[in-house]
Write a structure and sequence with these properties.
By secondary structure, the protein is α+β, with helices and mostly antiparallel strands. The chain has two domains: 72 residues, 2,3-Dihydroxybiphenyl 1,2-Dioxygenase, domain 1 (Roll), CATH 3.10.180.10; 57 residues, 2,3-Dihydroxybiphenyl 1,2-Dioxygenase, domain 1 (Roll), CATH 3.10.180. It is built from three helices and nine strands, in the order E-H-E-H-E-E-E-H-E-E-E-E. The strands form two sheets. Strands 5, 6, 7, 8 and 9 form a five-stranded mixed β-sheet that branches. Strands 1-4-3-2 form a four-stranded mixed β-sheet. The longest helix is centred in the N-terminal third of the chain and has 11 residues. It is globular.
Length: 150
């Protein structure tokens, strides 16, 4: 049997309370809503181990079309824990990071919409300017502006 090989990263999932707010936030970051719908029934629970579930899902895609965020709002079963405001050094999946072209302008725009800068926008050598922000519902998002792009 041929060994399986990785083809691509399909998406990263984020669970939220308010799907419309999350779509609006990630649209402001620069993603596009690719589709929205319900995922429900026994078959879905067989994948997740949650038995019968009902989840509203929005798929957001990056401008290059290669990466996606799957934003989910669980209707049933209820969510059981909340990691949204966990500090950066918490165990488990924590944040998603995007490469942007004008970090200062984007951060200013996101702050006007209620996002909070976690620390500062810093420069790493002559390579990147970076920051973390807490967006809608306290979701941690990293932003990186590559310097001296070729």
């Amino acid at each position: 049997m041929e060994k399986s090989k990785l083809l691509e990263m399909n998406n990263v999932g984020i669970v939220v309370e308010n799907l419309d707010n999350a779509i609006s936030f990630f649209t402001e970051v620069g993603l596009t809503l690719e589709g929205r719908g319900m995922v429900e029934g026994e078959w879905a629970g067989q994948v997740t181990g949650l038995e019968n579930q009902s989840v509203e899902v929005a798929m957001m895609v990056t401008p290059d079309g290669h990466s996606r965020l799957e934003i989910s709002k669980f209707l049933t079963p209820e969510t059981v824990s909340d990691h949204r405001t966990a500090p950066v050094n918490s165990l488990g999946y924590l944040r998603v990071m995007f490469r942007v072209d004008h970090i200062d302008e984007l951060v200013s725009r996101l702050i006007r919409q209620g996002a909070e800068l976690v620390g500062e926008i810093v420069q790493y050598e002559d390579v990147y300017r970076l920051c973390y922000i807490r967006g809608t519902e306290g979701i941690l998002v990293g932003l990186a502006q590559q310097l001296n792009e070729k």
